[in-house]
């Protein structure tokens, strides 16, 4: 009887030991929501403060923004495929889909950096007006989060290489990154709609 009660207790403890990892990450995402909410509020206040400089209607190009958006949205789909493979313990497929997600995210960041460089070259840097200061702060904060996500992806790929099984701890890491990556997609949709499209109307 003593042996029978020990086994389920161990599994039960392990389950509760791992659960706070994902829960804690949810708490972190809530704090990130506050940060982005504050940046969106600042942009709402300053969006018409051009100080004689260019407006969003003059600066933004829908074609490039459409490609950025497509890359990030597709990257969420490929990460989802990676999670499906992880649940099946198909490590090679997990690594492959993480790699595809990384390339798509890298393409997004590259386009965003190119956009910033072009705007600064045209004299529309963050010091040009309050509107541009709020724009650069909000969009670059999102871009920095995506960059951190890319570093996270590379780290997980390295950790997965040479393994034959995905332990619970690794699954928690993949789940947390999944939450983070999808969260960035939601934020970008808000940025694309409220910052870019609304400024171009």
UniProtKB/TrEMBL annotation:
Stretches that traverse the bilayer: 21-45, 65-82, 94-111, 131-158, 179-197
Protein name: Cytochrome bo(3) ubiquinol oxidase subunit 3
Subunit composition and interactions: Heterooctamer of two A chains, two B chains, two C chains and two D chains.
Similarity field: Belongs to the cytochrome c oxidase subunit 3 family.
Pfam families linked to this entry: COX3 (PF00510)
Any one GO CC term of the record: plasma membrane
Single GO molecular function: cytochrome-c oxidase activity
InterPro entries: Cyt_c/ubiquinol_Oxase_su3, Cyt_c_oxidase-like_su3, Cyt_c_oxidase_su3-like_sf, Cyt_c_oxidase_su3_a-hlx, Cyt_c_ubiqinol_oxidase_su3, Ubiquinol_oxase_su3_dom
GO BP terms: aerobic electron transport chain
Keywords: Cell membrane, Electron transport, Membrane, Oxidoreductase, Transmembrane, Transmembrane helix, Transport
Places the protein is found: Cell membrane
Role this protein plays: Cytochrome bo(3) ubiquinol terminal oxidase is the component of the aerobic respiratory chain of E.coli that predominates when cells are grown at high aeration. Has proton pump activity across the membrane in addition to electron transfer, pumping 2 protons/electron.
PROSITE patterns in the cross-refs: COX3 (PS50253)
Membrane topology: Multi-pass membrane protein
Domain Heme-copper oxidase subunit III family profile, chain residue ranges per copy: 1-200
Major localization listed first in the record, in broad terms: membrane
Gene: cyaC
Keyword Metal-binding: no
NCBIfam families attached to this UniProt entry: CyoC
Superkingdom classification of source: Bacteria
